[in-house]
Design brief:
312 residues, alpha/beta, Rossmann fold, five-stranded parallel beta sheet, two-stranded antiparallel sheet, 13 helices, 11% strand, globular
Amino acid sequence: MMAGHRPRVLYITGWMRSGSTVLGNVLNELPGVLHVGELHYLWQNGVLHTGTNSTCGCGLGLRACPLWSSVLHAATARTTPEADARLMVTRQHTLLRTRHTRARLAEACGTARPAPGTEQHLDRMTDVYRLLGTRGGERLVVDGSKYPAEAAALLGRTDVETRVVHIVRDPRATALSYRRAKHYIGPMSAARSTAYWLAFNLASECVGRAAADRYLRIRHEDLARRPEAVVTQVLRFAGLDDPSPVDAFGKVGLTGNHTVTGNPDRLHRGDTLIRPDERWRTQLPGRDLTTATCIAAPLLPRYGYPLLSARP
């Protein structure tokens, strides 16, 4: 393991299309804060080129980007990048899927011995975080990978300071978003997207129960309606006292980022207005509305979402 400072990581968990890219890019505008997007896919997309997208948020290929080429070179100096990436991806599939969250939490809490390969995988993740902490993330590295098992495993490390933000969104809004392909992200049925929504949020809840002092849950809808207040809340939770980069009207200037992957909106630059998106109330077909509501029903009241939503 590399010697050096103890990096501070804000790990975002929850299901996709919930606003993690917007939140991360807003935080990225602060000095010493580096939003790296879905770092989980660095090895699959950036090295092996077997994922859906291998473009950095700066517009270059990940291995052509000065930041990521430097990180990959330093992190894989003991072996070839391809061999290292294959091992990392294999361990991700065998140790860090959503179904592994409880096992990783038990290890993090010291009630179970780590599964073979877990500590070695976390060593390499921590190496990458430490490298990022010397390349723009000196105060905070924001990882929007959204894998609850990764968040759980990282909570057990003493060589990285991890705090977890769990972001949720009404599953019917997510279902509408997934009805259409978005650049390199394909469509998904309401049943499938909501089943994932339920699984990822339940697993994230387990993380919150195990480490309540290092866990914060926010809603996409609150971020959209009160962005300045919610971003400030996240900053204080992360241990930063900066003012929010978003003004009282929801406006923020985005200058660029080095996100590994994520929502294609991560490539947007310039003035951006954060505002509510309630199109699902009128555009989501009735069958999909019913499907998403029924599957998500166990968690809807907990997050403040009504079971019955009248169409305007």
